[in-house]
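=== Structure Prediction Worksheet ===
Name of assembly: unnamed complex
Input type: mixed (protein and possibly other molecules)
Chain count: two
Listed entries:
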Amino acid sequence: MAEVHVIGQIMGASGFSESSLFCKWGIHTGAAWKLLSGVREGQTQVDTPQIGEMAYWSHPIDLHFATKGLQGWPRLHFQVWSQDSFGRCQLAGYGFCHVPSSPGTHQLACPTWRPLGSWQEQLARAFVGGGPQLLHGDTIYSGADRYRLHTAAGGTVHLEISLLLRHFDRYGVEC
Amino acid sequence: MTTASPSVFLLMVNGQVESAQFPEYDDLYCKYCFVYGQDWAPTAGLEEGISQITSKSQDVRQALVWNFPIDVTFKSTNPYGWPQIVLSVYGPDVFGNDVVRGYGAVHVPFSPGRHKRTIPMFVPESTSKLQKFTSWFMGRRPEYTDPKVVAQGEGREDAETEIPRSTWVCLCPNPAWLMLPFCPQ
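=== Predicted Assembly ===
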């Protein structure tokens, strides 16, 4: 079986209009992939930037996969939420990016989006917060049924991911 | 780093904690330690250290320079649990107590060569305003009992701090950076 190590950090997020952000992240793979070590999902702490708009999490990611096929190459997906002083959480954006496929260290910037509702819902969101959310999280990383959504842009999630590949040459894959 | 059969590989890290920028604080010292997985073990060098106390330079740079050496070699059979260096910076508050000014963590670089890393630092903060005031007044800020928790991903959403009944909110001190040139081989 070929092995892939995904090691890195979710550095932080920038470009969001809200401060006090946290991120729920997860990784989705195809059926041929098996997670040998590491946790498949997690949640960062809440960060409130004091100066500048970038919220820093420095959340470590360390995953070890074994795979029999290239289909379903891992995808990292994110939900960025903001927390206000009362402890209520509001969605700031959804985003996903593929894990790179060449070994080495990569800087990734993942754009995010959030669903817009009707104008009444947008007005309510401006005053009391809330807003529509996805029922099924897999819409974040899959293209099916996206045509039903009307969304607005959120900020960007920044990651630094390093990739180590092993035994891919046994299967005729050059990397 | 890729081998055909499971065998031991070595990772040698030479470097220094070069300097920091903390616009609001002065007279700081830093501690470093390494966090690594079960398949890793240090074979040479020190995996922990405490630096000297440094004051800001009087010139326009306002730099806090430690130039604190890091020299450690790890051996492992598995890249999982790649070592992370955890840094904690401490300094005196207005009453003279030693309080934490920032925590940060970064993975040791993955490729041989010279690398310079600047890492953002954060402090845990209590959410209740009364608790913030009493902790400022008493000099007992929220602090991690074990700084190694900064290098872990699990439990960050509701981590405990030393002062009970406070939830965990992080703030980025303005802008606090640590510079770390690494020379791993």
